[in-house]
Specification:
three-stranded antiparallel sheet, seven-stranded mixed sheet, homodimer
Chain lengths: ~375, ~375
């Protein structure tokens, strides 16, 4: 095992940043290909930028965000957060007391760690289900959480979605939807309704996931809950700052469904190419992925964990070819699945035959590196 | 009482944002005068802006921030946070367990609410002192907090500062310094040393306070603590995002001591003018202020709280003259003191004789409004 805890994950992330910096400085931004699907963007006019002051900025941009946000998400009111994780923390701080329960339903475990961690902070109980038939709401529940689309882009069934909202509302329990990428995946690719329109009380999406906004969380929902959550967010510094709010407005204005729809077609072509050499890859809604476990089973026997093998593969792809995938740059506890998202701007600059060759070469290198723990450590941390 | 809780404070802030928006849209930015001393700024070149993507931005700007941040703050390492409050939360989440104690020393109570609130979240005990002779560190203490400069700009004595750090270190307890505005006030105006140089383990400053940076928290200190705090910050979404990090770098590069030093001279002239009509004002390091209590004692008898009177005065100044002071726009629990900071860019655009007349007119209006509760509510909330 080489990546053992959150601190190791941070060190790994810092090393990736160093590599990214070197590539930008020595070869230029064009030699990097961000296939995370979290590429985000920061779109701003000179006039926008002139207004970015502490109290003037939010006055202007929060108002614009109300309009664009409701257009994208539905609901009565919008609240911009620093990150989706900080929005989940603010919600649980507002609605869950010590000893109360949060029940979470998602298409496939594991859950995003911010939900159980936030429950732990308030001393609440946390239960999670990925089998609809087993889903159950205990009596002392104060919040039901539904994940629209998991970290690996597994999307919830819309009928189950509606049924769980009904079950919660019969008990007068509010529903929070973590629709990080789901707010776009579910609606554009799977033709599902907006979570607010399905009856959810509080919905949060990540403005950098599958849309050209900044890293940040956009919350929509019922005013009475959002007002409460805003108080906690402001008390603890969890809200989005003016530059992010401005970029959220412009990200929403510039979101186009086309890239998502095009990637949906292109992924099949890419999987066929990969199948000539590998059987470990599978489709996601907007690309292909390989789970850490399947990747680890495909390489030589070694002393590393499945996650370690995924981190090494992700770092080789970054170092050798400038391909950014999530495990190289993720926050602690994120999924180690290596996902090649074909909906990003950078993905459209890559020929799929070239990308296939990059993956073949990186895998060959990985297959040697895993035999040598020192070498593996060096690749992840230095 | 018209402003009774955090939710009322949020509504008051939303109303102020509406007024600011109207002034910017109808009269232009030049008709607003931000005298909060929290004006901040967002300085960025086109080249900077092109790099503002989720994983590319932090790779570039976090590295630059290490250099500029250590130059400004000292210490071994820098960690950028979404706000000073979120940095305090991350620190207490990292270092304080349930049942342990946090002891806080500051020049004058009340403390910034983020410190006791963060203690409450982890189930820790919180004790605070503003009399040095009474300061005491109980046995189960896991963190000592020192405030460099209070919300009303009361600055700690440097000998007491050193002594408290020594007392904590004798017991092997780390010291967090909340140097929100103090990192500049203490060093530039009072010739004190940087908190890290005085031996503090963790120091945080607000990059929008008395410097041209964005709203955000810049943490400096010992690597072993900052690495731990970074883990918590990333887990809960408390870290600064790339646009803010970029603006922190440029804010630090553009920080000049001159405005602070000039305001230090100008404030005496201003207080003399105010004394012709009022005896409620007093000096701050970079301007003048009136406490809510003294303001309330100066107006006609009424049914409002001291804080209400301060909020109304601040709203009148904003509506009638475009003068932004903290009580109009502050987050819940901030100080209700009305402070006119003469070190802001906007302050240098105002003639002090004109500003004196604005205050005379606003006070006359306030003196009538306080007699009418409905009218008072309307001014604060609509």
């Amino acid at each position: 095992m080489i990546v053992n805890n959150s601190l190791d994950e941070i060190k790994k992330r810092e090393n990736s940043f160093k590599i990214i910096r070197n590539i930008v400085e020595n070869k230029g931004r064009d030699s990097l290909f961000d296939l995370t699907g979290l590429s985000g963007d920061f779109i701003a006019s000179d006039n926008d930028l002139n207004l970015l002051e502490t109290y003037v900025g939010p006055a202007i941009f929060e108002e614009q965000l109300q309009k664009e946000g409701i257009n994208h998400m539905g609901g009565e009111k919008i609240l911009p957060l620093n990150r989706t994780s900080s929005g989940i923390l603010a919600t649980i701080l507002s609605l869950v007391n010590e000893g109360e329960t949060v029940v979470h339903y998602l298409a496939k475990l594991p859950a995003h760690p911010s939900i159980p961690r936030s429950c732990e902070i308030v001393g609440g109980n946390y239960e999670e289900y990925d089998v609809f038939e087993k889903f159950y709401i205990p009596d002392n529940t104060s919040l039901v959480v539904i994940t629209g689309s998991t970290m690996d882009h597994q999307v919830i069934d819309e009928d189950e979605f509606k049924e769980i909202i009904n079950m919660a509302h019969e008990k007068n329990i509010p529903v929070l939807v973590d629709d990080a990428s789901g707010a776009r995946l579910r609606t554009v690719i799977f033709n599902q309704q907006k979570a607010c329109d399905l009856g959810a009380d509080i919905v949060i999406t990540s403005t950098d996931k599958l849309m050209p906004g900044p890293r940040g969380g956009l919350m929509a929902g019922k005013e009475k809950y959002l007002d409460q959550i805003k108080v906690k967010a402001n008390q603890f510094g969890l809200e989005a700052q003016p530059p992010s709010i401005l970029a959220m407005v412009n990200g929403l204005k510039n979101f186009k469904q086309d890239n998502l729809l095009k990637s949906y077609e292109r992924k099949h072509e890419f999987l066929e190419l990969l199948k000539n050499n590998f059987d470990m890859f599978e489709l996601t809604p907007t690309g292909v992925m390989v789970e850490a476990k399947k990747l680890a089973l495909s390489v030589n026997d070694n002393d590393l964990s499945d996650n370690d093998v995924a981190f090494i593969f992700s770092m080789i792809l970054l170092k050798d070819a400038g391909i950014i995938t999530i495990p190289a740059v993720s926050m602690p506890g994120a999924s180690p699945t290596i996902r090649f998202d074909l909906s990003t701007n950078d993905a459209f600059k890559l020929d799929l035959i070239d990308l296939n060759q990059i993956i073949i070469d990186a895998f060959e290198k990985l297959n040697n590196v895993v035999l040598d723990v020192d070498k593996s450590c060096e690749i992840v941390f230095n």
